[in-house]
Amino acid sequence: MEVTKKSEYAISALVELGLHPDEYISSKEIARRQNIPPNFLPQIIATLGSRGWVEGVRGPGGGVKLLTPPERITVREVVELIEGPVAITRCLMREGGCSQLGRCPLHSIWAQAQEALLKVLGDTTLRNVVDSHNALHRQANAELAYPRAR
Amino acid sequence: MEVTKKSEYAISALVELGLHPDEYISSKEIARRQNIPPNFLPQIIATLGSRGWVEGVRGPGGGVKLLTPPERITVREVVELIEGPVAITRCLMREGGCSQLGRCPLHSIWAQAQEALLKVLGDTTLRNVVDSHNALHRQANAELAYPRAR
DNA sequence: AAAGTTTATAATGAATATATAATGAAAATA
DNA sequence: TATTTTCATTATATATTCATTATAAACTTT
What we know:
Two copies of one chain form a homodimer. Chain A has a two-stranded antiparallel ribbon. Chain A is mainly alpha-helical. Chain A is globular, with a radius of gyration of 19 Å. Chain A starts with a helix and ends in a 5-residue tail after the last helix. The first copy, chain A, has helices at 5-19, 27-34, 41-50, 75-83, 107-122, 126-145; strands at residues 54-57, 63-66. Chain B binds a DNA duplex through helix 3.
């Protein structure tokens, strides 16, 4: 229905792949680096593969590789792929979700709120996430090298 | 964790009360009119009462009444009262929600998205919802009286 | 052929959401 | 005072979803 861990894992996996372009990484290794349950990740990767974003090669030396440039994938797209159509309330879901068949007075408010949410996610590309991941790491490494006084 | 039916029921109940100012309506009657599970509503009303928005009077002729003007209650407040602090992802929840202790690159994106969502809900008062409820009803009634040709 | 790996599906346990039921307490009326 | 009506509170049951593990199958390389 909305943003579950599964989506976070998917994004984390894509980020890891984005950090190492054109490299095949086994799902087990991705799971280790990104702290994702190793048995859970394969299903997620399969979904990403069905969308054409990643390619998996089986067998020894195989692994997963990013096919699509990170700037062409938005967080919104990932979430919607993993969760299915996002709906912050039952009211916005298919069929009998809305008690009054789309005429309930809350309908438009939920829709507006959801659109605001999705807009933020849609304006954020995987590239942005990869970059801020890098920034965080640089910062952490600098801190290690030159710790500030406390 | 986020917007469940419970919140919708709460808002619906408040709307019903807002439609009939200064009138005591039994929870059973509210449930009937707004299509809310009748046994579920009392718990919800109790929560609304603890916040001081409604008053319940027991005994024959008793019922529930709105104490606070609808323009002074926002949808956001209702949702947060019913659901507790809203968090669209585990990452934004208390304590160990974020896998990387608040430093994960997704953190700020979730936060932005959530803030966008909450802003819409915070900008909508119960008055707005009551009004659009009225508008919908007027429209439906006009349609009944003077049906358009099809 | 053997080992490692992805892909796909199924099964399970845990948590949460939803709802019902039971009980208790207060107020009004007869 | 007894009875009815109603809110308030708590306990219980059910259903759904989430998260994970487990299993099986297909594929690739060595």
